[in-house]
Write a structure and sequence with these properties.
- The chain is elongated.
- With 148 residues, it is mainly β.
- The protein has a four-stranded antiparallel β-sheet, with no helix packed on it.
- The longest helix is centred in the first third of the chain and has 11 residues, at 9-19.
- It has a domain at 34-77 and 90-128: Sandwich (Immunoglobulin-like).
- The chain has two helices and eight strands, in the order βαβββββββα.
- InterPro entries: A-crystallin/Hsp20_dom, HSP20-like_chaperone, Small_HSP.
- Belongs to the small heat shock protein (HSP20) family.
Length: 148
């Protein structure tokens, strides 16, 4: 169903294991601001993205051919002029992620919902990709029909 996501994801995992997984000084890590889960549930393919801190109006989902693009903007908190930020570790800005979907998905009927910081996409499996039973004819049954 899902053909490919981020080609550098495995490289990032290996680097985090080799150099440490934290954001402490002296370690290298590239945090993924949009982690996801993807699975098949019955006749649907489901993808869930973690987007904490993003509002529903700051999320865009686009499909072009078999490429699904999710873009989200995490905006800075609105604070007064007399506020001085002491710690700012949460990533801000525009984040995007692309998924290359197989031809077996019906992207025309994609459904999206956003609740509690999780964007959930439900993509139906195309009718042509669903399992179906094939009837088998034999020479014996054809002869019986001719003689009848």
């Amino acid at each position: 169903m899902l053909m490919r996501t981020d080609p550098f994801r495995q490289l990032d995992r290996l680097a985090q294991q080799a150099f440490g997984g934290g954001n402490s000084p002296g370690t290298w890590s590239r945090p993924n601001p949009m982690p996801m889960d993807a699975y098949r549930s019955g006749d649907h393919f489901v993808v869930a993205f973690d987007l904490p801190g993003a509002t529903a109006d700051a999320i865009e989902v686009d499909v072009e051919r078999n490429v699904l693009t999710v873009r989200a903007e995490r905006r800075p908190p609105e604070v007064g002029e007399d506020v001085e930020m002491q710690v700012s570790e949460r990533p801000l800005g525009v984040f995007s992620r692309q998924l290359f979907l197989g031809d077996t998905l019906d992207t025309d009927h994609l459904e999206a919902s956003y609740e509690a910081g999780v964007l959930t996409l439900r993509i139906p499996v195309a009718e042509k990709a669903k399992p179906r039973r094939i009837s088998i004819s034999s020479a014996d049954s054809e002869k019986k029909q001719i003689n009848a």
